[in-house]
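Narrative summary of target 7.
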Amino acid sequence: MSPHPLSPSPFGRGGTPGWPRWSLGLVALLLTGCAHRDRIVVGSKNFTESDLLGEIVAQQIERRTGLSVERRFHLGGTFVCHQAITAGQIDLYVEYTGTAYTAVLKHAPVADRDSVYHTVARDYAQRFGLAWVKPFGFNNTFAITVRHRDATRYGLSRISDLARLAPRWRAGFGYEFLERADGFRGLANVYGLRFASPPTAMDLGLTYRALAEGKVDVIAGNSTDGQIQALGLVVLEDDRHYFPPYEAAPVIRQAALTRHSGVAAALDQLAGRISDAEMRRLNALADVEHRDIASIARDWLRATVP
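Modeled conformation, tokenized:
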């Protein structure tokens, strides 16, 4: 992809809670006038996977409807994108069901995939005038991740195995994971994790390298991130089923669907097309091989949705 300093995240799936109001207002001001009736404006969050899925969606709309698509990628986290779409400044972006359920709708995390999807689809339609399209098919859940040599040395395969090591280990988490309802505090309570010192807050894009280089001992990454395998890291099983499902799906303004009748059918063709393994492969092409996002999306669409 065109190299931005991207931060692979969930928690790329989210935004930074507690951002000052002026910063969100600035984003809104910069976006003013973006959405026009004669085109579709596609946004994305500020991490690789979101940019890539945004490009796939944009190209699919262009190739199937002939509409002009304006790209507003790498806008920020969940709350920035949510504000932009509810204000009509973008028409569409890709969201994750568990993030919408917990961070936006403020529900307590639950594990049932269908229940989460139906709840977010219903509530987004009723409260925000937004429609959820069918998911792409993969679940990008939080990935509690350790080095391979530590997993082997200490017999780590599940998150519950961390409890005996946490008192002498260092954790490093993205800013959002430390704040979210489905983030660190709940995880620590469910699994009895008590680290020697408070986890280090860092940019999500730095956590993988910090773990690989021994600066921290455990991180919360994304299960579909291509860097996990490339850096020789191991994801621990969420054996107590703490995290809700995080199925990625396009969220679009109902007004845009009504105005452009062919968009729904174009987006439906993407439903169920991307497995967890395939999303990891696509992310690795961008983050590890540094291929251009537009080219990755074009090649994938030609091969998968001819």
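Strands lie at 39-43, 68-72, 92-96, 130-132, 142-147, 171-174, 200-202, 218-222, 233-235, 248-253.
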